[in-house]
Structure prediction request, 87 residues.
Amino acid sequence: MRPPLCFVCGLSPHDLPGDRGSSGFTLVHFALDVQERAAQEARDRDGWVGHPVNAEWFCGAHADTARAHADLHWRKALSVLAAHGDA
Ligand SMILES: [Zn+2]
Prediction:
């Protein structure tokens, strides 16, 4: 699992004052296609502990937007959210 770093704006807990730390960050999981889901389930059975391809961190300002796209395939969702960050 990667440390928190907002996918949209690049904010990390180090950028926040005081001890708010990672509590202000949300890990959002997006949809996988059938093949990806099968591969992930196989890795899970093997005890794999890496960072899921379909999960990204979002800061408090972007978590709601990210969750609103959570039912999209992760590739599509992340391209939409990346464009959102440029706006
Ligand atoms: Zn953000």
About this structure: Residues 6, 8-9, 11, 58-59, 61-62 surround zinc ion (CB under 6 Å). Residues 74-86 form the longest helix (13 residues). The chain has one domain: 13-86. Residues 13-86 form one domain.
